[in-house]
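Design review, sub-item: ligand-bound model
Attendees: FS, YL, KQ
YL presented the inputs for the L-homoserine complex:
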Amino acid sequence: MKEIKVGLIGFGTVGSGLAEVLLTQQKRLEKRSGLSIRLTKVADIAISELPPRFADVTLTRDAKDLFSDPDIDIIVELIGGIEPAKTFMLQAIESGKHVVTANKALISQEGWDIFSAAAKKGVEVGFEASVGGGIPVIKALKEGLVANKILSIMGIMNGTANYILTRMTDEGAAFVEVLKDAQEKGYAEADPTYDIEGIDTAHKLAILISMSYGMRISLEDISIEGISRLEPIDIQFAREFGYKIKLLAISRNHDDHIEARVHPTMVPENHLLASINGAYNAIHFTGDMVENVLLYGQGAGMMPTGSAVAADIVDIARNIQSGSINRVPDLSYLPDQIIDRQITPMEELFCPYYFRITAMDKPGVLSTVSGILSKYGISIESVIQKGRKESGPVPIVIRTHRAQESAVEKALAEIDALEVVASETVKIRILEDQE
Ligand code: HSE
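KQ shared the predicted structure:
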């Protein structure tokens, strides 16, 4: 049986998960591919030895030992971040190795350099694990949905943020405690602000947008808001209004322009995405032929992500075996078909809104606030003010009908400038029932 040899850079959470998958699933992979896929070398600077069950795998501190090894066919980068990951990927490609990564920051920001270097060298780039952890979303887009014009993408794409929001919702748990837990479980990025501030979700959305619409997009094109300003009180009010708060990535294809945004969103309780809990992710596409597709699964973690990396390795191994390297273009569209498109300015967005205004409890405050909203054409759907304070501010919570983001921005700037308003208003966009 032909052997395909794999070198791995980075034996952290996902790296060790991949090693386990390749070891424990070896026979299954043989039955499915007719190939013996073996991890032969690991490069890592943080460990001094590999667990005993990997006795036949060589450990080195120097990634160059992998590039210079003529027996290695595929090099997997699992160290994360831009550098030295990018340099390692380019060196591996330059050495004629196929490459696989789970690195969404790298693919979303530096992908073009990597894809063009790989195209020149005639090698493949696998990045299934960069979006949705164990969910085979990249393969679904490249192959299963190939006959569709993708009309929209919407999803929960960060396990850590969803885990935090779920535990805050279900247990009233404190943000910091839950984040610590998510880090211990290996869900969070090395820098967890990426998870909390929506950056990791934006990396993943950028990758899906490129592949769905055949376009270039950079991170700066995506409007990004995270969950760090949310408080338990917002989660409680959301529940009273019949919503759950989720960190959503949303993109709609308007042909001549594309929406691209990541923000906390109030999702109606009966919506499918409201039931996605813990570290699970769910990615919903609409295609012109297929209509709705929902992909659901573990969005983070050692074994699910290891499974996705292994799937890329098997794909490449099969292509090596059948002499069909680059049978499927990396980004689903042929490189010369990828175009630039306009991004819809956020100010043009229309949706219902939730506002939590923190103001002194004085006669006339509510009418001043509603006067400002009415001046900007923003119509109130309902208002809640709970508690009474002789001194000190109270939350005034407002749900609006559909309004334009530009009007909302102006109105909130005016409201927040009022003397009676104690802190910046929290604004959460609401997903409409039919979306
Ligand atoms: N930190 C990421 C998450 C890992 O929590 O979803 C998977 O990309």
